[in-house]
């Protein structure tokens, strides 16, 4: 999970959804590079099959996280929605 969060944080400080989505494309490329390195590491026997599978699963999850966040941001751009600006009301703790 940490891996997915790390790569998905690419462009996080870009507050415009379209720009953030563009940076997620770069993050997606980085995930592909990690997958390429994993394949090579397994072929050269730097890592065993069990570790490869665990790490490969993490990269697949990272891709899914990246894809879903991109879809969300693009939907926000298309509709003009800005849900991150809506303030949630705090419930008064007094009875």
Can you walk me through this structure?
With 95 residues, the protein is mainly alpha-helical. The protein has one domain (2-6, 15-79). Helix content is 68%, strand content 0%. It contains three helices and no strands. The radius of gyration is 18 Å and the shape is elongated. The chain starts with a helix and ends in a 16-residue tail after the last helix. The relative contact order is 0.16. The model has no long low-confidence stretch (mean pLDDT 83).
Number of helices: 3
Query: How many strand segments?
Result: 0
Note the beta-strand portion.
under 5%
Order of helices and strands: HHH
Q: Which bin fits the share of residues in helices?
A: 55-70%
Instruction: Report low-confidence residues grouped into runs of 5 or more.
Output: none
- Tell me the major beta sheet: none
| Mean pLDDT over the residues | 83
* Rg calculated over all Cα atoms: 18 Å
Distance between termini?
40 Å
Protein structure class = mainly alpha
- Outline, from the CA principal axes? elongated
How many structural domains? 1
């Amino acid at each position: 999970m940490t891996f997915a969060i790390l790569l998905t944080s690419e462009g996080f400080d870009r507050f415009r959804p379209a720009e953030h989505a563009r940076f997620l494309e770069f993050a997606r490329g980085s995930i592909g590079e990690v997958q390429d390195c994993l394949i090579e590491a397994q072929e050269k026997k730097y890592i065993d099959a069990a570790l490869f599978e665990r790490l490969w699963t993490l990269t697949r999850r990272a891709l899914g996280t990246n894809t879903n966040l991109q879809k969300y941001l693009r939907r926000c751009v298309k509709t003009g929605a800005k849900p991150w600006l809506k303030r949630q009301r705090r419930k008064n703790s007094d009875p």
